[in-house]
Every structure is written in C-alpha cells, then in structure tokens.
C-alpha cells in the first residue's frame, strides 16, 4: 500500500478548521471589536508551525485569545508597530468616508493610448495601451518595463514584463504584491519609465501606483523635502487625489483596496518609507460585518489560521506564490460570506 500523503493530512486539518470556524462564527455575534493585525514569526506560516507543535502546545493558536500569548507575540514582532494593533474598522471607514469625496477628479479626455502619469517614472493605463497600434506610443514615452495586473495575451519582447494576474475583488491582498513591483522597478534605468496596467486602469494598477506614491511622499518627509502628513488619511488623500487628477477620472472604487491603502498609509507613518506590507495580513483584516464592525476576534484568528494553511498547502502541491495567496484569500472570503457575517 502506498504511504499516506502528507498533503492529505494537511487537507484533513483544513477541513477541521473549516468546521471549527463555522461553529465559532455561528456562536459569536459580530460586535464593534477590533481588527486583528499581527505579523507572525519568520519562517513557515504560523498555522503550520502550530500544527507541528500540537503535542507541546495544548492550546490552539487559531482559536485562542490568551493575553499572555498575545503579549509574547507582540513583543517578538518587530515588523508592525504596536500602535497600529488593533486598528478599529470603524476608524478605517470614518477616514475613507471623508477621503472619498475629496479625491473625485475633474473629468477630462485621455489620449488614445490611455496612459496617464502616476508619479515620476510611473504611468498607469488600461489594456488599450498594449494594443499593437500603440507600441510606438510606449516607446515614445520611454517605457522599458511593464507591470500587468491582469491576464494579457501578448507581451512585446521590447519591454521587460512583470505579470501579476490579480482579480479585481475586495478580498485580494493586492499590497502583498507591492514588494515584487518595487524590486522590479529597481531594474529599470533612471531615464526610463514603467507602465502599470490592468483591464480598465481603475483599480488594480491605480492601487499599486497610489501605494508607490505614498512611499515616495514619505521618502520626501525623511529627506525633509516635503511636510509630514498629519495622519494616514491625509497621506492617502494626497497620493490618491494626485493620481486621480492625472488620470482624469475616478480611480480605486474597490473598497477592499481602499482599506488596504489606508492601513498601508498608517504603516508608513508609524515606521518609515521602507516598511513592507505584512505577509500575513489577509482579507480577515479588512472584511467587516454589515454593521461596519470587525470580525469577532476569535473568528478572525480562525480565519487567519485557515488561510495560512490553505496557502501553505497550495504551495506544497506546486502552485506559484501569487496563485496560492489569491486562492487562500478567496476561500476564506467565501467562507466568511457563506457564514453570513460579512458585508
């Protein structure tokens, strides 16, 4: 008989977590709790480490709320400032409700190639710019690198290409891709430009561009070439508003992307321009109930544990990092919606 597959053991654990999450959620009413945002130790996902250490750690990390355990994790975690944990979902929405009407630009026509400036050396567009008839426009603009945030059928050999096939869905942890984009940008020459595009040039590429612009603003603050924003809302509004103004039409209508950008703005203000989006922040961080409250803490913990296990399992069976991240996020988002506590 063939030996049992370790993947099957992990699948069984995931199914147990699914049942536990459903039970936990049905027994817990959503309340005005706090968003769970904590980055685990380096190495394997916390969920996988916990599964391997069950014998020595009788209390399950995924469902616990031990203040002693939490304090130890906070103390060990240097990647996320303590003051950002926890960040009330009500506060996130309060900031966004103020920002949204302030970043609606004056409408204007764009050129046929659809490209618009986002910041120095970075342009955004929809798929139209990649049409064969606009190849010379790309060359004339000095484009040497292209970041595709959606599937594309053609990629000219004249450009270096980074492919990020992301859904335009609120659950997608789009800012987990920011580091890859930043590293890609470092490979271009100073006198060249990068084009970041998605299907319509509204959500995916604009979100990446606004995040890059916020980091640029904070570099200016650090070099004392611009004033420090008063708060994360001001930082996001400044970057979002300027990219929208250049675009000449509303951008970032995806609420999940909006919330991620605000959280990233808070990270930038509390740390520095080099801070990275934490690897373990997933949709359980910005998903909330219909009454605009956070998931109950115990449910968020179980959702995170499940997502990390699914992501790890996907990687183990050969899926690429990007597909694993998005598949795990989708499963957790669908499950939370099936339970009926999200909005």
From TrEMBL:
Record's GO cellular component, any one? cytosol
Domain of life of the source: Eukaryota
One Pfam entry for this protein is: DSPc
Cite the GO molecular-function annotations of the record.
protein serine/threonine phosphatase activity; protein tyrosine phosphatase activity
Domain (Tyrosine-protein phosphatase) ranges: 114-270
Q: Which family does it belong to?
A: Belongs to the protein-tyrosine phosphatase family. Non-receptor class dual specificity subfamily.
Q: What is this protein called?
A: Uncharacterized protein
Q: Where is the Tyrosine specific protein phosphatases domain?
A: 175-214
Query: Matching InterPro entries, A to Z?
Result: Dual-sp_phosphatase_cat-dom, Prot-tyrosine_phosphatase-like, Tyr_Pase_AS, Tyr_Pase_dom, TYR_PHOSPHATASE_DUAL_dom
Q: Which UniProt keywords apply?
A: Hydrolase, Protein phosphatase
The upper taxonomy is:
Eukaryota, Sar, Alveolata, Dinophyceae, Gonyaulacales
- The answer to keyword Plastid applying to this record is no
Q: Spell out the reaction equation it catalyses.
A: O-phospho-L-seryl-[protein] + H2O = L-seryl-[protein] + phosphate; O-phospho-L-threonyl-[protein] + H2O = L-threonyl-[protein] + phosphate
Biological process terms in GO annotation: signal transduction
SUPFAM superfamilies for the chain: (Phosphotyrosine protein) phosphatases II (SSF52799)
Residue ranges, annotated region (Disordered)? 22-82
